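Marked as duplicate of an earlier ticket. Keeping the data here for the record.
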Amino acid sequence: QVQLVESGGGLVQAGGSLRLSCAASGRTFSYYASGWFRQAPGKEREFVSSISWSGGTSYADSVKGRFTISRDNAKNTVYLQMNSLKPEDTAIYYCTVGYWGQGTQVTVSS
């Protein structure tokens, strides 16, 4: 059974930073592409960033240059470093590797 547990969300002021973590059990991140999506109130879930099994990364235009995805194979954990946060980044952030985590709330105040 695959379980993904996200953590690191919280309340931060605009311009601040947060680092989200996604720890997996039952699936090895380094064998699969994984990524982060987010869903703001009243909006559809949208792509944020992904990392391929070989380490290639991609980002939504809205976060490019501010967010960085990375992976620690030894810890089987994927991270999302979020800098220069904006109020429009407020959302529930979900980790995925073919399965979905429960999400972690990120709130950016202006």
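See parent ticket for discussion. The chain has a mean pLDDT of 95.
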